[in-house]
Design a protein that fits this description.
single chain, about 425 residues, 15 helices, about 15% strand, binds ligand F0G
């Protein structure tokens, strides 16, 4: 199954060998994607093969990414793969969240169940496999936290040296802690994500370090399997909507590509619609969608407590725009208050997630109340990160101390603050009886 890199720009579509170390099209500067020469009529065979692999004890088959390897066939062999058994994430029904979101039913595809607690693991196992195949020894990324945690884990597991760049003071502590523990060379830069990305791209070029941001097309291939696994879990019946948070827009690009390719291969019979949700203070893609769709206007100082999606100049916007348009999708934005309350509701379902992930439920609520999504539609929201990534946010919310970046108090609508009591049996009994 020969694979190539192709320029994403319709007017260019130049092709390059799959082993060329490039992150943009050398001819026109466009984004790159992996393309395949797939055999015809493989849908039934692949579905059966993928289902059968669930009973296998072979590491590649146990991975919720590599189980679907025919769909992401960019490697010529699998000797460079390191798997931490990524993917395999559950699809959870959440009736309370459905009712909060104005729906009859809602399911969460929870990517926070991944080995490092976010959807980045699906892509990182692929990015790191490609780095090893190319003989690279060092890998780098700039990150709002999850990419760096994931890259640190996979690179270290693979015997590569991870170098991570993060915005100083602006990532959740759980994520920073992971990067340190997994052994990443960690550089905190006094700049925001977008500014650091420009720096890292230059550094990667100069020092020959392999770049593992989501501009890397192999990470996108891995993230495609989130959609394949979802469809597999639903016996190949697509939902009406897939709702996801948008930051750098790698995931939107990956989901859209996966869905189109699944349709092309006959794995599914129709495309679900994509709904991308951004935080109000970091919503350049929303503005693009609402206005002139030919040019993204970067937000110079993006602000949101959902630090994972605090991005003002998302590199993958041309791909994401194509995917949202093709799927007849929408882009919405939500406030800090809406994210915080939606997050508490997801917690009350016994599920929980990090702030960026909760933008999905906040977005669903907004889209049902404006009539874009109707009550009886079949909706899957993708929770991108684990609740434990950002415990500080949670504590502040529940004790009423959470504030927006411009210092406005967030109302803890679903407050659950701890009670402090003396060690007194009578008093504790009284409180619990009340
Ligand atoms: N949700 C979480 C938890 C994330 O960590 C990210 C991105 C997103 C959503 C947005 O995904 O960028 O593909 O649109 N985090 C990146 C990082 C930027 O560096 O960890 P996207």
């Amino acid at each position: 199954m020969p694979a190539q890199l192709a320029c994403f720009e319709e007017a260019c579509r130049a092709r390059f060998p799959i082993t060329e170390v490039i992150y943009n099209c050398p001819r026109c500067g466009g984004l790159l994607e992996a393309v395949y020469d797939w055999p015809a009529n493989v849908a039934a065979e692949w579905k059966a093969l993928w289902r059968a692999r669930r009973t296998s004890n072979a590491p590649l088959d146990q991975s919720g990414v590599w189980r679907y390897r025919e769909f992401i066939g960019f490697l010529s062999d699998y000797t460079s793969v390191v798997t931490l058994r990524e993917g395999n994430t559950p699809l959870l029904q959440a009736p309370q969240a459905a009712s909060y979101g104005g729906l009859d039913r809602l399911a969460f595809k929870h990517q926070g169940f991944n080995p490092t607690g976010s959807f980045k693991d699906n892509g990182m196992t692929c990015g790191v496999a490609q780095a090893r195949r190319l003989g690279k020894e060092r890998v780098a990324c700039v990150s709002t936290g999850n990419t760096s945690a994931s890259m640190a884990a996979y690179a270290s597991a693979a015997g590569l040296q991870p170098v991570i760049f993060i915005p100083h003071g602006n990532i959740a502590f759980g994520k920073l802690a992971q990067a340190l523990e997994y052994g990443a060379r960690t550089i905190q830069v006094e700049a925001n994500f977008d500014q650091i990305l420009a720096l890292v791209r230059e550094l990667a070029e100069r020092l020959g370090i392999y770049l593992l941001n989501s501009i890397n097309p192999f990470r996108i291939e891995g993230q495609k399997t989130i959609m394949v696994e979802l469809m597999d879990q639903r016996d190949w019946r697509p939902p009406d909507w897939i709702v996801l948070p948008g930051g750098n827009l790698g995931n939107t690009s990956a989901f859209g590509k996966a869905l189109r390719e699944m349709l092309q291969l006959g794995l599914i019979g129709r495309l679900p619609r994509l709904a991308v949700i951004q935080a109000e203070g970091a919503a350049p893609f929303y503005e693009l969608w609402r206005g002139d769709r030919t040019r993204l206007r970067a937000v110079t100082h993006p602000q949101t407590l959902a630090t994972a999606i605090r991005i003002g100049d998302p590199v993958s916007w041309p791909k994401a725009l194509h995917e949202v348009t093709t799927s007849d999708g929408v882009v919405e934005k939500v406030t800090e208050q809406e994210i915080a309350d939606a997050k508490a509701i997801i917690g009350r379902c016994g599920i929980g997630c990090e702030p960026a992930s909760a933008a999905t439920l906040a977005g669903v609520r907004k889209l049902t109340s404006s009539g874009v999504i109707s009550r009886e539609e079949d909706v899957v929201a993708v929770l991108t990160g684990n609740l434990l990534k950002d415990p500080d946010y949670i504590h502040r919310y529940h004790v009423g101390e959470l504030q927006t970046p411009d210092a406005k108090r967030i109302t803890p609508t679903f407050r659950n603050s701890p009670v402090v009591l003396p060690n007194d049996l009578v008093l504790v009994t009284k409180v619990l009886a009340g």
